[in-house]
Design goal:
Blueprint lengths: L9 E4 L5 H11 L3 E6 L22 H6 L3 E6 L4 H11 L4 E4 L5 H4 L4 H7 L4 E6 L14 H7 L20 H24 L3 E6 H7 L2 H10 L20 E4 L4 E4 L4 H8 L10 H6 L1 H12 L4 H10 L4 E3 L3 H5 L2 H6 L2 E6 L3 E6 L23 H7 L4 H10 L2 E2 L3
Parallel strand pairs: 1-2, 1-4, 2-3, 4-5, 5-6
Antiparallel strand pairs: 3-12, 7-8, 8-9, 10-11
Helix pairs in contact: 1-7, 7-8
Length: 399
Amino acid sequence: MTDKALSHITILDFSHLLQGPFATQLLADMGANVIKIERPGKGDLFRSLTFRDTWLGGESPNFLAWNRNKRSLALNLKSPEARAAIMKLAETADVVVQNFRPGVMARLGYGYEDFRAVNPRIVYCSGSGYGEDGPYENRPGQDMLVQGLTGIMAATGQADHPPTPVGAGFSDQVGAMNMVYGILSALLWRERSGKGQEVKVNLLAGMLAHQNQEMVMAMNTGADFERPNSGIGHPGMDAPFGTYPTTDSWVTIAMSPYATLVGVLGNDDLLRFDDPETLFDQRDAVWRAVAAETGKWSTDALIEALLAADIWCGEVKSHLGAAADPQVAHLGLVTSYEHPRAGTVKVIGPAVGMSATPPAISRPAPLVGEHTREILASAGYTESEIDDLLAEGAAGVPG
């Protein structure tokens, strides 16, 4: 077995839902020993939430998506005996990750200072919605709410429709990437300094940072973007940049010479719009005129013709369509793991390739407390002591 890049790193993962669990899954894919600390019996909140009330063998697909390659340790955080066990694990751990509301972990005795007292080298990463304090300190930090606050929702969709959220947990996923970025930076600095530190990530800052080109434009010109009233793909772009109908689906057309596109479509009357100012000021009219022509083509025929003319284009695919895409198959992005209850779970594999230490999926998402005995035993607890913790309700195993 090829060694993994982070196989020497142990993470105590208190996070739930998407932001924190995605971050720790990314690190687990690289070999980190992630110990997911969950509530006995109930576990991560995502175990009880799912899309369309659809379950896989009684398990939430949402949970299965973000928790592979981890072990589950079920402990009652309010129990003194559980706290003692966690601090014993913290003595040799490298990272703590949590995304509870600000102050919750500290009130329970699991704040940064609590962990630093037993391990000065610990890297403690907190994820929040809006930071640790300020006027939004007590607001719920949920993905769609943050999309609304940071401009991306107001810039997405058509002008005569409501502001449109991205069709995935985009704020949470940006937050997860920032968690990984911060954790790895802190671990690298620890190699030089020997010291741990606290890393703080919030969804508000992350979403603004990932829209920096839009923010720079708006803040330095004093003008907000105005959404188009058609399939133009960005509120700051001119035509033909956007999404266009075909006889059987939709295609995307990005930055491409307008005259070249007109040549492919075969209607020279469209050249009346071929002026940079017109292509922006009348972009909705341009879109409608171009869409009338693309709507005469099948998707396959139009894509073939556009690519032959070196026009940037692509098909619009559903999630299932994307899973069946030939390039996705070529890259081997769809893989699976075997779960004791859900059976074979199809997933998207790691997105990063590494020549010497490639990431891999070695464990399915765990059952609540599946590894409680194993983890506590590795920390030095005897079978009798573990039995006592279970009897007292300080720890839990699968029901």
